[in-house]
Write a structure and sequence with these properties.
heterodimer; A: 238 residues; Rossmann fold; two-stranded antiparallel sheet; 25% strand; B: 79 residues; alpha+beta; Mth169, Chain: A; 3-stranded antiparallel sheet; 2 helices
């Protein structure tokens, strides 16, 4: 499968993602410069973490106007799989591909540590290798991960099972103490209504190998790969 | 024409920076200060001379880029 990793000026997790796709998953990983206007030939697209455009104005606010974002929007509207990690999630929010916005962490601190997240929806193309309610230990590293949306949108996210990951205790309890940044409803990751776009604040690409002491993040990439393979098989059969 | 634009978090949305500043003011003895809200101030020159057209343009800038209207509100003056 062909994965594209978008590289914005200031992206800094792009190489981690490329490494996981190529070395851990054994798939084709292509860096896509933000000035590109086409994503032809790609099966999935990843918006990596970092500080695109120095986080000027708001996180993701300027990156969303990069030329490649028109192609990402078109790709997503045709059902293409798009994964946004950390800053990539923030860009997807600013671009309107996912609902809501990010506020500064409640503590005002940049938080870089392992957290636990609960898989609230295992029936997505990004979580097929997980089980419902499974607790994943994954690192976060952000200053603006305090997810916010209006009550109507939140109710819709809850009703449509669009909240895919929520911050929880190691035992899987979703409590305010387990919420590292003040995020609404402990939201760590959401998907769009169609299910092909996912954004999450934790960094699965930083924990996808045994050598790093944690390979939990691999579940998300493996899920994507499986979903792509199944979709391709379906297309061939059809 | 000059546009002076203020972008602030909507009322009711938690402003952790405003809260931290409020605590700092309190520590300094400014007990009368409350409800501190922090925002952004932007200033820009516009080639437009017609105030009505300038207003339409500035509003569009705010809606599209300068403010995220999910969490922020904006106001501006034209001079």
């Amino acid at each position: 499968m062909n994965f594209g990793v978008i590289v914005f000026p200031g992206s800094n997790c792009d190489h981690d993602c490329l490494h996981v796709i190529s070395s851990v998953l054994g798939q084709n990983a292509t860096p896509v410069w933000h000035k590109e206007t086409s994503l032809t030939g790609l099966d999935a697209v990843i918006l990596p973490g970092g500080f695109s455009y120095g986080d000027y104005l708001r996180t993701g606010a300027i990156a969303r106007f990069s030329p490649v974002m028109n192609a990402v929007k078109a790709f997503a509207s045709e059902g293409g799989m798009v994964l946004g990690i950390c800053n990539g999630f923030q860009i997807l929010l600013e671009a309107g591909l996912l609902p809501g916005a990010m506020l500064r962490n409640k503590s005002l601190s940049f938080i870089c540590k392992d957290v636990h997240i609960k898989v609230e929806n295992a029936a997505t193309p990004f979580t097929g290798h997980c089980t419902s309610g499974q607790v994943l230990k994954i690192p976060i590293a952000h200053a603006d991960g305090n997810y916010y949306t209006d009550p109507v949108t939140l109710a819709a996210l809850q009703a449509n099972a669009q909240i895919v990951f929520r911050y929880c205790t190691p035992e899987g309890r979703v409590t305010s103490e387990a919420n590292p940044n003040g995020s609404l409803d402990n939201i760590a990751g959401i998907r769009n209504a169609e299910g092909n776009v996912l954004g999450l604040m934790p960094h699965p690409e930083r924990c996808s190998e045994d050598v790093l002491g944690n390979d939990t993040g691999r579940l998300i990439f493996l899920s994507m790969l499986d979903a792509l393979k199944k979709a391709k098989l379906k297309a061939v059969v059809a | 024409m000059k546009a002076k634009i203020h972008v602030t978090l909507k009322s009711g949305i938690l402003d952790p920076q405003g809260k931290a500043i409020e605590h700092a003011l309190e520590t300094l003895g400014f007990k009368n200060a409350s409800n501190v809200r922090m925002g952004k101030y932007l200033e820009l020159d516009l080639k437009e001379t017609d105030k009505g057209k300038a207003e339409v343009e500035v509003k569009s800038m705010c809606e599209k880029l300068l403010a995220n209207t999910i969490i922020e509100e904006y106001r501006y003056e034209l001079q």
